[in-house]
Amino acid sequence: MAIKFEEDEPVEVQMTSLLDCVFLLLIFFLVSSQLKKVEKELPITLPEAQATHSVKATPDLITVSVDANGQMYVNAKPVGSSGLRTALRDAAAENPDRRIRVNGDVFAPFRSIVQVLDTCQGEGLTVVGIHTAADLQK
Fold first, then answer.
1. Running DSSP on this structure, what letter comes out for residue 46?
2. What is the three-class DSSP state of 95?
3. Edge-to-edge, what's the strand order for the sheet holding 72-74?
4. What's the predicted TM-score (pTM) here?
5. How far apart are CA 133 and CA 113, in angstroms?
């Protein structure tokens, strides 16, 4: 004897897990597109040098930038003299061998660059480099 089963509800495709995956991907791409280097947006023209050495940036690299007006930035955040000392003191406390890169504008006051270098030395940070633009004649 054949038993006939009647379905009361039509077959549906569940979209909940598909929508969850789509939203997670959307969030991932939005967040990853926002992780660009902010320091490239600073209005700094680097000086050119003939004797340059290319070094890869590491995740623990701290960038100290000085613009043409002498304003200082630590990782693209504006700081004053006391803010610079605080940021470098915190960096030295975490890792005294942390690398510091100084981005100085072509027209930056030399006293501001010396102040950055002096603060680095005063806080015990000795791995300091000066970032320059590539020589255009090569």
1. P
2. coil
3. 77-79, 72-74, 62-66, 100-104, 128-131
4. 0.62
5. 16
> How do residues 56-78 score in pLDDT, each as one tens digit?
667 778 999 999 898 999 988 99
Q: Note the pLDDT tens digit of each residue in 45-57.
A: 777 766 666 666 6
> Cα–Cα–Cα angle for 108, 78, 62, nearest 5°?
85
DSSP assignment of 57-82, as one string? PPTT-EEEEE-TT--EEETTEEE-HH
64 in Cβ contact with 113 (< 8 Å): no
CB distance 110 to 70 below 8 Å: no
Cβ neighbors of 21 (< 8 A, separation 6 or more) are none
Whether 55 and 90 have beta carbons less than 8 Å apart is answered as: no
CA distance 48 to 75: 22
Q: Which of 97, 98, 101 is nearest to 73 (CA)?
A: 101
How many Cα atoms occupy the beta-carbon half-sphere of 102 within 13 Å? Answer: 27
| pLDDT, mean over the chain | 81
